[in-house]
Specification:
alpha/beta; six-stranded parallel sheet; 13 helices; 2 domains; about 375 residues; Rossmann fold; 12 strands
Length: about 375
Amino acid sequence: MHLGAFLKSVDNRVVRPFMGLLPSVVSKGPPEKMERFLIIRPGGLGDALLLLPAMAALKETYPQVELVILAEARNAQAFSLLPYSCRVVDYTRPDRLLALFMEPPFDVVIDTEQWYGLSALVVRLVKGRFKVGFGTNVRARCFHSVVDYSHEEYEVEAFFRLLKPLGLDPGLWWEKVPFVLRQERLRPDFSPQEKKRLAALFPGASHPSRRWGKEKFLEVARFLVDKGWKVVVVGGQGEREEGSYIASQLPEGWAMDCTGSTSLRETAGVLKACRFLVTSDSGIMHLAWLIGVPTLSLFGPGIVEKWAPRGEDHLVVRLDLSCSPCTRFGMVPPCPHNFACMRNLTPEIVVEALEGFLRRISGC
């Protein structure tokens, strides 16, 4: 069993039932002295990326703070994009987790997990003077200050609201988003002329239900090449097959496959050189939004209001089916329609939307 699936099973069967037996933590306000923060962010890359604006706001408000992040191997790279240093502890390493319990008390502990109880149990056990988190279930028993959570609210806004108990006004920070993250030198190197006509594609997704298919992405890539765009396929090791397939089917010199060969920071550099990104509902979609790259994103089971990039330079393409969206708290239920929300989204529909998108964004 995959580690993530195992942890979710333990959470459902053991952790949350156990937490229901615990007495609630007594509500109180933050301490006057706030010098050590622990931020807990388990889960995938997308959530971690959308947390970065709130973390930047926190660090700018408290520039001398010692910041420790409890994360997973699969999302730890996101925090390397922050324009300051912080210590990242692997959530899935028992030895690292136990060592955290031995540390001096944290002034503030913020659990950014939305549903599962394991992180809230960690909050309960770790030494901390003020503990904050979303009160979506029995996990609310573990926090001094409980924050409401809504599926109709953009996730960036939800993360910002975790800072309100500390006295920070989230509304003051929206003008700074998207903000410039720390970026590596562009890899590979593109000429200034090439940068004007580069289009990025990301054909992957963390869950199979969000994947559109390499053949469909190829049709979009062919449309872009016909319009004079050079296509750059981005992604990690999980997208190498798609990247190789798409690039190999396009005319020589008109495609570049960067899948599996760049770090997350280097991928940010590649995206920054591109005029826009065509992508599935994914972490790379959030990365593009963070660095100010326009996106055309394909949505199926995901909630647009919660996860789609905000702004005039971002367009969502989806089918208006009565059964979608169906995802809640990262959980996709079994689909009796074989994910028709993505399967029936044809290249013709996407290309038509893309033509309008290209007219919308300036200079295209």
